[in-house]
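Weekly structure sync - notes
Attendees: PM, LS, DV (DV joined late)
Agenda: review two folding runs queued last week.

Item 1: First target. Sequence and structure tokens pasted below for the record.
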Amino acid sequence: MMSKKLVFHLIYRFDVGGLETVLVSLINVLPTENFQHVIVSLTDSSLQMQSRIHVENVELIQLHKLSGNDFGIYFKLWKLFRQYRPQIVHSYNIATLEYQFIAFLANVPFRIHAEHGRDIFDLDGSNKKYQILRRIINPFVHYWIPVSKELKQWLKNTVKIPIEKVQLIYNGINLELYKPVNRSSKEFFTIATVGRAVPVKNQLTLIKAVELLVKQNSEIQHQLRLVIVGDGELFSMLQTYILENKLENNIELLGSRDDVSAILQTVDLFVLPSLAEGIALTLLEAMATALPVIATNVGGNPELIIDGKNGSLIPIQDEKRLAAVILNYLNSPDLCKKHGVAARKTVEEQFSLSVMTNKYLALYQSSKNI
């Protein structure tokens, strides 16, 4: 009988977010007879995220990394790799990349690194320091996993990773969890956005767009509602802005929630105003719920949205343009339905959880050929 492969998932923080949701979905779906998993968080984790793991015997290790250079983490990881002897180390995003070298020194047989998107410090991937870091670590990584075509081309053309080492795997979602509902006409037109309250998610532009609409038209003021799901470092700033500008009757901050699928079924439009994205899980979730979607024209968003067909693409940080597109959807119920139906079809065809899982399964199993 073949023994299970032990997979170490190396992540900066195991907290509520799209990347972490993809990780948990993967663990929950991969065959338990073939794989066992350990999640290593360089910093800490949330109980909310831990509760989403439905597979038994998944160990979570928190290293409580100090901010800045914490050289003790290298030794801690070395000891873990030597103690557990994982067959696979799967690291996620730039904050974990350098530790692939430690995995190499510890003789971990198969090492892969996933690029799920960029953060505020390197929105367009032009940061030379991080490009050089990737090139330095590249010899110690067997495969790079971008989640969008844009990231794949960037790894190939800008970072200069050999294309044979780059495997595109789109994020996928559970289509049984995110289902369309019949949206009958109701008193309010409700917009939702879901994401961490951090600079790259840029919720403030959406708040300002709603502010423009409600302050220029008293009728819209009584029609339009915005709900913002997510917690993070900018939560109090967003809350202060809403209160100072007397928007609390139109905008509600819900914080971190475990019932996003239910929330999406109660709204009419989804907006993702991010400054950068890979393949946004929250965007896929909204599309699977047959919502019309508005997203900024960045990263992998154009790979999901065909402007004018299954949603709308807008420039970043342009609240006036965003307000105009929101108003167009508010005044066009038929357009909302048309784009929502097309959005659901897009996810069904290309971004299901089963498609994603099968690709990771094939990649993990290929480790025996290394």
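Item 2: Second target, run right after the first with the same settings.
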Amino acid sequence: MYAQLLHECKPVSEEPLVFTELETPEPAEAEVLVKVSACGICRTDLHVVEGELDPDRYQLPIIPGHQVVGKIESVAAGSSLTAGQRVGVPWLNSTCGHCRFCRSGRENLCGQSQFTGWTRNGGFAEFVTAPAEFVYPLPDLLSDTELAPMMCAGIIGYRCLRLCEMDNWAGARLGLYGFGAAGHIAIQIARHRGADVYVCTRDFARHQKLALELGARWVGGTSDQPPDKLDAAIIFAPAGEIVAKALKALDRGGRLVLGGIHMSRIKGFDYRHIYWERVIRSVANNTRADGKEFIAEALAAGVRTHTEVFPLEQANSALLRLKQDAIKGAGVLVTGY
């Protein structure tokens, strides 16, 4: 098979991924082998490639990519899935199943978890293996390229909405900071629930325009203050300097959710910005329940992803476009282009 292999972490502008021919992997017990048709790209892929995550977890060389859609090619013993099924392979690749977090429904916090495209080979390839219990059977209503961004951007955005802890979404004021793959899916879920969405993002030609097309009540630049105080806000952009700006935009009792796996240094802010029981919380990965519930609600809400498609061979240039905020919606790599 052909794959994009990362031997050394370095800036994506230096084209660190090497298009390589490798042996097709064999699924281990209770795993499936998936023939990849599409794999979304996201900020986490950039963080993996550029070496911004926990250095102790890297096992180079590695094949990145964790928003995989494809069909099962073969099934090892111990799996209830069958060859030919269309499935999604997400970021959360496996957990121990025994620790206090796994036992209490918080498997996203498991200290022994493995991650597709970071600690396990991922979907920037023609084939990928994954534990059968951690893949999602997918509906036939959407295409492979439409579904791919939902496997991480959609699921993590959904968890961010959950951690906003809104008692009633009807008429709630939600702010979104950054409007790429995750933001353009989250707004559709939030609007379906009845929320008014305020979007702060720096690119007018692509991101602000798309936000308006998807029903944003207001759009502005990253540093602009929304015209109304917000009940909750989600920061998808990996920029720590946004935190103080978003806190300032929150109403009393508002919640600020940080939706990325990596963020630049968060600068200090005045205590008054967090006073009145405002809350800051991070999002760490997702549970399998998050993924299943998101897929069901996305179908009910009629969510559609806006994608720009690249052949697998162009993974480096696609990631560079992502870093430059030059993709409207989500980027997707495809095989057999």
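Discussion on item 2: The chain is about 25% helix and 25% strand.
Action: LS to circulate a short write-up before next sync.
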